[in-house]
Design brief:
alpha/beta; Rossmann fold; 2 domains; six-stranded mixed beta sheet; four-stranded antiparallel beta sheet; 10 strands; binds adenosine-5'-diphosphate; binds magnesium ion
Amino acid sequence: MNTEPSSEIIGAPLGAPVYELANVSKTYARNRVVALQDVNLTLHKGSFSSVIGSSGCGKSTLLKIMAGLIPPTKGRVILQGQPVKGARRDIGMMFQQATLFPWKTAVENIVLPIEIRDGKAAAMKAFDKAHDLLDVVGLKGFENVYPNELSGGMAQRASICRMLITEPAILLLDEPFSALDELSRDMMNMELQRICREQDATAFLVTHSIQEAVILSDDIYVMKPRPGRVAEIIDVDLPRPRTLNMMTTPKFGAIVDRIRRLLDKGEDM
Ligand SMILES: Nc1ncnc2c1ncn2[C@@H]1O[C@H](COP(=O)(O)OP(=O)(O)O)[C@@H](O)[C@H]1O
Ligand SMILES: [Mg+2]
């Protein structure tokens, strides 16, 4: 009998639906570009999903619509049972560029969302938490450093802290690690996984990297351009927690190959 405790949960029951998109389409009025056509997706609580596809296939448009930053032309976006009608507090967003304010220290940048939301006094109180977060991402000792003294990877880690300080239940990530070297990216991926599990956050990641999508995700939405649409949803049934070693397994390789073939079919990446 195998009495060893297992930390692997395969086929864990799905959490409640967090996001529900039905027939979401977007045509930009200015140039009549059909950026999205009839996108349907459901994200469950605590799940990690990615969207992958060639440049210009509508990934950022999709994320902006989900965040309530731009409206869809058609279709429905429901978040925690409510239609999304504008920017929401329960969402944390992160972009490709670290966008830290150069005149603020790392810790001041991190408490900024609290300052904007709840005022200066609340931001002061959040300093301890900001210090703890910096410790988690390996930036202990850099609390009072200005962004120009941080490397690209360090700045990106600081912006992760800034995203997490408000403890958002939903993380929308638009190619957050694409400017990092491969090693830092692998580290950040594992860090992101750990944080998501700890906070039971629901994450949606836009990425260009098939490996990154596979190592992090439960589901991968493969998009095709002109018009931007979801061509296929890939279920990644690797056990959790994921480890970097899994990237060398045949199963990982097979999923990567499958996605590469889907993306290669007559499309440039
Ligand atoms: N604000 C905008 N106005 C007009 N067209 C846009 C705008 N934003 C994006 N587009 C167009 O919509 C399509 C999808 O863009 P985007 O969502 O940024 O794709 P991706 O993030 O996958 O690279 C592209 O053809 C792009 O040129
Ligand atoms: Mg984009």
